[in-house]
Amino acid sequence: MRTFTSLILGIFLLLGSTIFAQQKQITGTVTASGMPMPGVSILIKGTSNGVSTDFDGNYSISANSTDTLIFSYIGFLPQEIVVGNTSTIDVSLVASTEQLDEVVLIGYGSVKKKDLTSAISTVKGEELSKRVVSNIQDALAGQLPGVQVSSSGGKPGASSSITIRGISTLGDNTPLYVVDDVPLDDINFLSPQDIESVQVLKDASASAIFGSRASNGVIIIRTKQAKTNKVIVSFDAYTGIQSVAKDPSLANATEYANILNAASLNDGGSLIYSDPESLGNGTNWWNEITQNTPIYNANLSIAKATEDIKISSSISYQDQEGIIKGSDFNRVTARLNTEYKLNDQVTIGENFTFANSKTKNGPDLVWNAHRLEPVTNPYLADYEIDGLNEYSIFSPTITDVPNALGQLARSYNDTEYSRAVGNFYVNWEAIEGLTFKSQFSVYYSSWENNWFSPDYYIEENDKLEVNSVGRTHNNKLNTTWNNTVNYQKEINDHSINLLGGVILESQTEKTLSGTGENIPSNHEDLRYLDAATEGFYTTGNNEKYSLISYIGRGNYSYKSKYLLTATVRADGSSLFPDGNKWGVFPSVSAAWVTSDEDFMEDISWISSLKTRVGWGQIGNDNRNSIPVNARLTTIGNEYYTLGDDQQVILGTAPANVGNPSIEWETVEDMNFGIDLGLFNSSLNINFDIYKRTTHDMLMAKSIPAYLGSGYDAQWANVGSFETKGVDLGITYKKQINELKTAFTLNLSSYDATVVELADGEAIWDGNHQRLNSLTYTAEGQTPGLFYGFVTDGIFQNQTEINSHSDNTGNIIQPFAQPGDFRFKDLNGDGTLDDDDRQVIGDPTPDFSFGFNMQFNYNNFDLNILFTGKYGNDMLNALNPYLMSGSGTYNSYAGLLDKAWSGEGSTNSQPRLSNDDPNQNFRYSDYYIEDGSFIRLTNLQLGYNLDNSILDNLGLARARVYMSGENLFTATSFSGLDPDISGSATQSGIDWGHYPLPRTINVGVNLSF
To answer: Which positions ≥6 away from 987 have C-beta within 8 Å?
Structure first.
């Protein structure tokens, strides 16, 4: 027994000594391109044991001879090395070429990212999917330098507006969208979950190949394609709660009454409300019209690829109810992309998307809910509603603002929008390197709006004695036929890529609208035109547009180090008269991969360096702004009422004064850029500086009034425009053991200047009931400037009023009283008039930015996105009502305490007055606010289930997440949202737009 025990013990000791003999300390240094690599992860394969390199790239780890070490770092190819008998393992990591070899779509073709010569920014669909939004425009916010995304409000179904490198014209500045090679002006039918990649062509050398529709830049969108020979089923869904991100601080009934009392007493009158305290809080109209609402989204996709056929399909559903009552939106989108390889030379395919959306268009209540007086109850007393219909049970208001809940009850306005978008293509590789492609694309949409206005009576100024009904149809059919030939050839170190083609485009738009009055009842079954008994009125129109284009492009590369691209496009547009139909627009760009030069070999901290320069011209026929008959003088219908019986007579009159001399607007662009990678490409910098000049700008020119009524402008080439700016993108990636991080900063800044306008005439825009025109656009200045009087504090006493005089002693503001604004007499003539106005604000930001942070640790991922603007001015168009304390509209809370109440009390808020003989609240810098802001746009925390759990569930991937959109905004702007879109001549004005909601979501990403 003792012998057996000794034997067993000896075996264990032998095995133990063998095991421990194999365990040893492995040391070494990890480098890349000769430089030490700190933070590289070294993991023993099959275990969780690991270390990371120090600042000098050194490491030390205990391992057995049979172990395999895995060396990994973001942006580099992982390496696996068996320990074996050595105790020193030095590793040189090789940068992954995946990013450089990534294919970038450039229009009618593609190139590798490393061969780009133009200013093109890209973002993958997987990055966009980290935003829980309903449209592509919102998903792009803060993602790319040079791409500005501004909110058009949070109304369900609304999309943000996008500009690329600011504005280039006083007309439409919307970029061209190209979805699966189909040129579009509308992409609101797309589901963000269907996007594979987005490329933004920012300069003319990149976008000129798209010709007349590309003067504002091009956004190329590629939907998802099948890639593997396995059936991949993916299901993505989220649900959340939306709430108002910011509530306005409005006076309650007691403070409202005190404000009116103070204003009356200051004017020498008596109290209006004898006991304000008895009124309490009164009606909070903002709370009456807002609500917390759910949002839902689901997307199911199926894809599979074989050697001969690829199929990718999806169906998605979006449902969003508005945070302002009376509005909601839902959309169904179905997509099918297929490609079939007939033989080694011929491939056919199609991309098709169908979408149907329904929108309930609630009334614009934000403006009215701010101004409504809180002393009015929403509903009449019970004893007053007997005999009234359901739309007449609301209380009349003191002001001219209608009862908001009455507006809501009468709101019957619905829109249904169906779109079918697709293409069919044939690709034939005749011989090696020579390819012919023919593609026919179609965009068809059917838009229908139905509305009904019931009869009601609240008071004489708020009634409708005869109900009415209406329906409007709009059908569009756009077709594009591309025929291109492409030749590629490599000869030793030389590479050429030649493209030529013919493009045929046509657009047809048909509208039909009808209205009728006096429906027998307001019943929902009678809300159609045939039920109307009188007041019939119809309109309809057909518009056609066509374009033929010839394109050519050549790419040349020598050793992938010296790169040259040249394009030319000739466009013939039906919008222009004979003799001016054609425009020819060339571009050229070059790049030098400096880092590949021999003299750069010893500069190991520079991983890559490319210098780019480009020039180009793009034509613009401004088809989204000018009428299709701008070259023609047309006749239209005019309706007049004559006689005691008010008989309606139909007549004709000139509707448009044509210009037979209009011609192409041309945008000329110059760009210089640098792409720089540092420290083994862990830090990447992209910098571009550009200048864009618009010649022969198309705009409406005033014509003499003596020519008659019915028209007041003629389209002409009468302006020029210049935009200068810089784009900066910085990305830094760092891996610390199992923690992977990535930080991206995008900065954009531009200055726009109007060089020339029609006959030098300034353009006034932004008509306001109390302030008249708000913006001023003139030669030599930024468009859409705020223009008004300049305040200089508040008169504290009569002596200061008397001292504010001209050289002869004339008092400049003779009607002023202590507590009134002092205005500057800028021209020194002793009188305040329009000549004393000046520029008081600029809505163009000094810069806009996006800052994105990504963290991945084991199965967790965290994404944080900040967006913002700095240096822009804004005007809250509600402030002339809410800050003046005059009239009977409501005011901001706290106005009574802020207003001047005696000498030395304040120097910023004038006294309260209804009479206001000094016109304190005329248009002045008092209304201009700093619109700078920084917003936590998105925060998302996700968790990926372990493989062991996935196997049990039969899943390939499962991720759950929680996210928040529009979580907080830091700004001094008094309105609900500082991020507001607008036109070139009317930007930075808050007209009480629909507020952007704050949304909290939970969701899942599943793959089978």
So the answer is: 775, 784, 843, 844, 981
3-state secondary structure 447-487: EEEEEEECCEEEECCEEECCCEEEEEEEEEEEEEEEEEEEE
Report CA-CA distances (Å) from 697 to 345, 579, 986.
Answer: 46, 18, 18
How do residues 117-137 score in pLDDT, each as one tens digit? 888 888 888 888 778 888 888
Distance CA 666, CA 607 (A): 39
Q: Give every CB contact of residue 873 below 8 A, 6+ residues apart in sequence.
A: 786, 841, 842, 843, 928, 929, 930, 931, 988
pLDDT of residue 442: 96
Ranking 44-48, 119-123, 868-872, 984-988 by mean pLDDT, the lowest is: 44-48
* The total number of residues written for the chain in this structure: 1008
Sequence-separated (6 or more) residues with CB below 8 Å from residue 574? 544, 545, 546, 547, 581, 628
Residue 537 near residue 621 (C-beta atoms within 8 A): no
Q: How far apart are CA 508 and CA 475, in angstroms?
A: 8
Q: CA-CA distances (angstroms) from residue 143 to 125, 139, 221, 865, 938? A: 12, 8, 15, 9, 12
Q: Which pLDDT score is estimated for 12?
A: 41
Written as one letter, the residue type at 668 is E
Q: What are phi and psi of 524, to 5 degrees?
A: -65, -25
Contact indicator for 395, 403 with CB cutoff of 8 Å: yes
Residues 6+ apart with CB under 8 A from 446: 417, 418, 419, 473, 474, 475
Residue with token string 């002045």: 924
End-to-end CA distance of the chain: 60
* Pair 117, 589: CB distance under 8 Å: yes
**Rounded distance, CA 873 to CA 813, Å?**
28
Residue 349 to residue 305: CA distance in whole angstroms: 13
Nearest to 122 by CA among 96, 107, 140, 136: 140
Residue (of 453, 448, 457) closest to 468 by Cα position: 453
Residue with the two structure tokens 């058009």:
152
Residue 249 tokens, joined: 């601080």
Q: Kindly tell me if the per-residue pLDDT of 16 is higher than 70.
A: no
Sequential DSSP letters for 778-814: -TTS-TTEEEEB-EEEE--SHHHHHHSB-TT--BS-T
Kindly state the DSSP code that residue 443 receives in the 8-state scheme: E
**What is the spatial distance between Cα 135 and Cα 155, in angstroms, rounded to a whole number?**
13
- With cut-offs at 50, 70 and 90, classify the pLDDT of residue 981: confident
CA atoms within 13 A on the CB side of 276: 15
- Per-residue pLDDT tens over the stretch 828-857: 899 999 999 999 999 999 999 999 999 999
Q: What is the pLDDT of residues 488-531, one digit of tens each?
A: 999 999 999 999 999 999 999 999 999 999 999 999 999 999 99
Of the candidates 310, 332, 352, 355, which has an alpha carbon nearest to the alpha carbon of residue 180? Answer: 352
- In order, the DSSP letters of 572-640 are EETTS-TTSSEEEEEEEEEEEEGGGSGGGTT-TTEEEEEEEEEEEEEEE--TTTS-TTTTS-EEEEEEE
Question: Reduced to 3 DSSP states, what percent helix, strand and coil does the chain have, rounded to the nearest 5?
Answer: 15, 50, 35
pLDDT digits (tens, 9 = 90+) for 334-381: 999 999 999 989 999 999 999 999 999 999 899 999 999 999 999 999
Considering the entire predicted model, what is its pTM? 0.86
- Asked if residue 365 lies in contact with residue 404, where contact means CB atoms within 8 angstroms, the answer is yes
H/E run at residue 286 = helix 285-289
DSSP string, 356-380: EEEEE-----HHHHHHS-TTS-SB-
Q: What is the pLDDT of residues 69-92, one digit of tens each?
A: 988 876 677 888 988 888 899 998
Q: Residue 965 and residue 295: Cα distance in Å, rounded? A: 12
